[in-house]
Specification:
By secondary structure, this protein is an all-alpha fold. The mean pLDDT is 86. It has 17 helices and two strands.
Amino acid sequence: MLSKEDMGNKLKELLADIDPRDNAAMDEAIRKSLSFLTENYNKFDAVAKELIDQMTDSLLAKAKENIDKMDDGFQKRQGERILKMASGSHQDSKILVQVLERRPDKKLEILDDTRETFIKGLQTILDLLLDVREKRQQGIVGFSKISLFYLCVDELLAAYHLTQHAFVNQAYSHIRSIFENLDKIGLFHQQPEWAEIWVSDKPEDRKKVRKELIPSKVRKKLGRKGYDPIYSMFSEMGPHGTFRGIQSRTARKINDSDEIPTIHFWIAGCPFEHNYVWLCSFLSYAVVHILLKIIYVYSEYLHDEELEKILDDTATEFEIFIKKHYVEWAKREGLETEPLEQDIEKLRGLRALLNRGI
């Protein structure tokens, strides 16, 4: 933890070899000192933070006073942007780029639990796919299925990182892709001729792929309804640019003194509680479905005793996670939870889901 003494020592260090008459060098030293305070703000103790806040407020007020006196033009507008950036009302591209380069700043139990269950589930997926890879996968069908499973792994990783930072629409887009790929795997497993068409570069086959391998028709070929409400929700919340998707990252506020509402629009993540609850739950749901699909497609290559344990552990962990984070949240929000709780109970029979070719 840094203190106000560290603030002073840093400034002394920067000013040590500078001629006080060199205004340019003095300005640069002060700029570096402010950058040090800004970049390390969270490392300072409470006393130092209060002092930094006071200094910042004073500097911003003086800067605003000077900018307001300027005639409208490029320099004034540039100054206004810098001032708003410093006060937090304008985005800094460097900070936005860093968002996905680090662990989330928010300390939430749901994020910690998601990380733990995700890493465990992902490792199980990788372990099972290793067992499959060590058995020769023959022909186009074999290649198609295993390659799509590994595509799902990358989609999972992208969805996980986006979820941890509440990139709502982008996370839903990757989760959607997982279920789309899993349906293709199921189709190629049941009807191998479609894998042959899928990889073909013949113009007539490419046209057939565009027409017959769209998600709704793949579902029908698998014996399900063309319309899937969950997939439709992923599409609506993710890549389709719908109003509902925009609502997930905006808030409307009406001030008592002003009848005109203010619309707040989040970028680089929208950390509403319900966004974390839904995204983390569906990410866990996707992990479960990938595991089930691997077991369904490759059961002959896998160890029966291990599979029984995986199914039991997966059902138990998913049930605990959903009840703890989704059901409890839904109850607090006054939502009906009994149907969901009944569905969760059915997860204890994951083996039955395999028989349906999930």
